Amino acid sequence: MTITQLRAFLLAATLGSFTAAALALGTAQPTVSELVRKLEVEGGLPLFARTGRRLVLTSAGEELLPWARRVVDGVDGARQTLDALRGITGGVASFGVLRNAGYYFLSDLAERFHAERPGVRTRLVGQNSVEVADGVRGGELEAGLAVLPIDNDGLSVTPLLRDEVVWASADPRRLQAPMTIAAIGDAPLILYDAHYGWNDPTRRQLAERAQLIGARLEPMIEVENVESALVLVARGMGDTLLSRAVASSAGFPASVGTVSFAEPLFDTIALITREGATLSPATAELARLATEMLRAPSLGTDAL
After folding, report:
1. I need a labelling partner for 291 at 20 to 30 A (CA). Which of 48, 228, 282, 304 fits?
2. Confidence (pTM)
3. Are residues 149 and 275 in the same domain?
């Protein structure tokens, strides 16, 4: 039993496939499959039920998983401790950022970090919060920023700031009073983050509120990014919801107005790390800088 085998098993278990584990390890899928197979042969028990498209742990795999995580985290922690003693002069800082990071001035994060730590390679991955959480949980990313709520299983979550979510429309009549869930359906609904749909954290909050009054919200148009949604709203094709940071940005369409929800709605942005893991010095420094930039008073958001 080797560290490499345990790492391959751990990534396959958390990411759900040998292909995803191979991508995280930077190797080929057959290599990961063979590492896990050797682990199974040595232990004399199958670790995965290979049915369907996603790997499912057997009872033996479930028992091995926490031990594998403990061993891999211990080895990584020892390596990171030695790196820290040498100082932050090299390595890779792997960090997940919000897809709308530019609206929170995080587009300057890479530039500022590189100026302070020129010898460190920086890997900033901009994704939906669901994907950031999965990446941190699976070990592809060391840490990241995510909008809550997310599935926090296996994660340590530190809320950083709260940003109001507002309703946006090009129809002034839709902005005369705070928006209610019941009134949303009176105009075509345009939503972004089409790929993740109602798993997106902001959408989840909206869906939960609608459920409480027995309503079901159906978007007329779904697109991938907030900029595309705003173009459609500006053309009068429907309404959307977005954060106050987006509404306050310089490029926000002049023909679009906003109004708060009658029951205020907020995006809470949090720093997430894998539970029990120790960040490498480079990523810890990058996380510190991102936290500092997010909490800057100029953002107009509520620091937590």
Report:
1. 228
2. 0.68
3. yes
